[in-house]
Amino acid sequence: MSTEADPLAVLGGLPGVADSVDSVRKAVDRVYGHRVMRRRSNEITSEAALRGARGSAALAGADWALEEVRRRSDFGGEGEPWTVGAALRLTAEAGQLLGVWRQSPLRALARLHLVAAGGAVPDETVGRPRLTGESVTEPLVDLPLPDADEVAGRLDGLARLLLAGTEAPALVTAAVVHGELLALRPFGSCNGLVARAAERIVLVGSGLDPKSICPAEVGHAELGREAYARALDGYASGTPEGVASWIAHCGRAVELGARESAAVCEALQRGAA
């Protein structure tokens, strides 16, 4: 596919992106090559899902200790418990949506929002992009809010790019999906949670992380909300430097997620977990 027909591939040539892609691949390969993965990969996947949900919730304002997330069974009500519950539901749902994502990314995104926000916001706004005049609650993202027409056009363009296929590395595609959803904030709520779940779907579906054991959400949380917002500002600027910086940030997040799972593997090998 030519770069003219594959604009995502062009981003792979931005300064520093190839290094990020290579570094991510090495980090992912290291954890997949761990001897524990041959016998207990399902346990690693489950633990990565829990830690990824905790990280995504932390970025959404519910920064709970991992053991508290593990201990709790009731995530009803409002506020932080609801946010943690939404992150957990999304992490579970993401693994079920690979087939839908390949056929219709927009339908998968609608499903993700329904899973995240269902029962917490007015029913008529759940599972669909916002309409003109509808407000958005996304406290972490302080970017100008695109209007509903721009959102619809850019979502359609993103879906077309994904359905057409790309030669771009998985990291690049995942970072663009993540960044675009955060910049657009297409839903009235839960856009960050949905964006991070969509990033996970791309990383898994691309074959980079097929067992979903390298939770980028862990890395995003570890790098911190300030760095996350600053990197997103770079993506939204549309400059080559800004977009490259966002891709590198996402790459570092995946590396940290891989490191987290490698530590879990080591703990299991020692019989400590």
What does this protein structure show overall?
- Residues 104-249 form the Fido domain.
- This is Oxidoreductase.
- It comes from Streptomyces pathocidini.
- The structure is a single chain.
- By secondary structure, the protein is an all-alpha fold.
- The chain has one domain (7-270): Fido-like domain (Fic-like fold, Orthogonal Bundle).
- It is 67% helix and 0% strand.
- The protein is built from 13 helices and no strands.
- The protein has helices at residues 7-11, 17-32, 37-59, 66-71, 80-94, 98-103, 105-117, 148-164, 170-184, 191-205, 216-223, 225-237, 240-270.
- It starts with 6 loop residues before the first helix and ends with a helix.
- The model has no long low-confidence stretch (mean pLDDT 93).
CATH architecture: Orthogonal Bundle
The total of beta strands comes to 0
CATH superfamily: Fido-like domain
CATH class assignment = Mainly Alpha
How many discrete structural domains? 1
Largest sheet: none
Note the overall shape.
globular
What is the terminal-to-terminal distance? Answer: 46 Å
Beta-strand fraction estimate: under 5%
Oligomer: single chain
Average of the residue pLDDT scores: 93
Protein name: Oxidoreductase
InterPro entries: Fido, Fido-like_dom_sf
Brief summary of the model shown:
The chain is built from 13 helices and no strands. By secondary structure, it is mainly alpha-helical.
